[in-house]
Amino acid sequence: LMLRSLVDTNYPGPLIIYIMKHPAEGASDLLERVSHALRAHTSMNATILDIEIWNPMDMYCFKPTVINDFMTYASLDGSLPDVLMWADTSTQFNSNPVSWATRMVKNGIDFVIGKGVLELARATHTATFDYLGKNASNFRRQELRSGHFLVNLKRNKAEPGILRPWIQCGTRACQACMAPPGSVKWPLKSPNLHRQDQSVLGVLTYDFIDKKKGTVAIANNAVFPKRDKSENGRRYFDVSVLRGRRAKSDECLWNVSMCD
To answer: Biggest alpha carbon distance in the chain?
Structure first.
C-alpha cells in the first residue's frame, strides 16, 4: 500500500526498497512479489534489496544500518541526493514527496519528521538516555517521533546533528544504545517501554531543536523555530499511517480491499 500510494502521487524515483530477512530464510518471496507488482504497475526508478539480519536484536537497528550503507555508497559514486527520505511500509503518501523536498531546500528546512503520540521519556529506555548522555526528565513533555523522516543533506546541518549520531547509535552500539536488553515495545504500560530507532531519533531531534542547530518541521504540525505564521509541517511531509494490515497477495500491494 505504501508503494501504491507513492505511485499514485506520480513519484518518478529513485526509490530503494530494503527487505529484512534471516539468512536461513533463503530467497525472499516478498522481494519477487514486490518486483512483480512494480513491473506491472509503474516504470518508477526502483531498486529492491534483501538485507540479512543474523542477530534477532539487530533487527531493531535495521534502519540506521541500511541508511548508512546507502550514504556510504552514494557518497562514493556521487549519487547522494539533496534530500534523503526514509519511510516505513506503514506510510501512505498523500502527495508527491518531490514537492516536499523542493520546499525543504527552498525554505531552508534541515529536517522533517513525523508526529508521534507517546511521551518520549516514557517510551525510551533509561540505558539509551545514559548512552546518549541525556537526562530523561528533560524529555517528559516531548512526543515520541515517528519512523519516517527527510534530511536536507544540501545544508549539512541535520546530517551531522541528527542523522549521523543516529546511525552511529545503531551501527556501532546497537544493544547499548538503540536496542538495550530488556527493552520491549509492548505493553504500553511496561516500565521498559522502548521504541528503538524512533526513541533515539526523538531524543536527537529535540536536542537539535533545543540547541538551535537548525530548522525542524514536525509533519502535519509546526516548524521550529517558527518563522512564518503560514508555515506548518504539512508543507513538508503529508502522510497517513496504516496499521493492522498485512499483504496476503500481489493484489494486496495495490488494492486495499484485498488486504482484509
So the answer is: 54
Residue of 212, 205, 207 whose CA lies nearest to 233? 205
pLDDT confidence of 244, banded at 50, 70, 90?
low
Q: What are phi and psi of 239, to 5 degrees?
A: -135, 165
Residue type at 122? R
pTM of the model: 0.87
Three-class SS state of 143: strand
DSSP helix/strand/coil, 13: coil
Strand bridging mode 15-21 / 46-52: parallel
- The verdict on whether omega for the bond into residue 191 sits within 30 degrees of 0, i.e. cis, is no
Specify the residue for cell string 518486483.
Answer: 35
pLDDT digits (tens, 9 = 90+) for 7-48: 999 999 999 999 888 777 766 677 888 888 888 888 999 999
What's the rounded Cα separation, in Å, for the pair 207 and 205? Answer: 5
> Alpha-carbon distance 131 to 244, whole Å?
33
